[in-house]
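Service request form, structural biology core

Requester: graduate student, group of Dr. S.
Request type: structure prediction, single chain
Budget code: on file
Notes: please return the result as structure tokens.

Sequence provided:
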Amino acid sequence: GVSARPPATLKDAEVELVRRSGKVTDGIYSRFNRKLCRPAVRWLSHTSVTPKVTAFGGLAVAVLASLCFAQGSWLWNIAGAALFFLSGLFDEIDGMLARLRFQESAFGCWLETIVDYATYLLVFAGMTVGGYRRGGTVYLALGAALLFGSVLSFFAISVQRKLAAPAGRPNEYSQRYLAALERDVGNPISRAARQLQFLLKKGVLVHYVLLFAVLDLLPVLLFLGAFGAN
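Core staff response, request fulfilled:
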């Protein structure tokens, strides 16, 4: 709790509550993203905008990002990566706002997951079309493999979440997943998964998409994504 009494002010209390609206499983990337989101979250907390509205707002931004990637040029790729980064911030705002308002729910958790994967499919499809325009049919094969792996990952994680998390609390899946990997640290596969699992998060992916776009290395990202997803 935060005590809002002299000499503390209401403003100080609000700032502190927003600062603490992340999750215990946040890594360095998510913490950085959330710092960027704090002013918007504090402002939105005084409006009627709901977490679900921000989630769909991020999806709308991802549609624009996909259209940019589909153009295929370096400048358009950077624009698409910047919009994808913005979409990732919407994703952070969604969760922060839900926790601040005590509006976390099982439905909201599943909705966030569905929106995240819809975002991936849109952006990867845009990259595939853009790559095809620049380089040929090999991008179609990479894109198809990446899209297939992404859909397969969504179903696999959905089943895992349903089995591992308590009924009505799917948001606890990440903590239970990491705890299970820690207990199985003697297994080299679990140990490797524990070290690399942060790369699967949208809050991390948005940084690397922007980096690879600036370096004009999106084909490499498509290949790594297709390999990793499958």
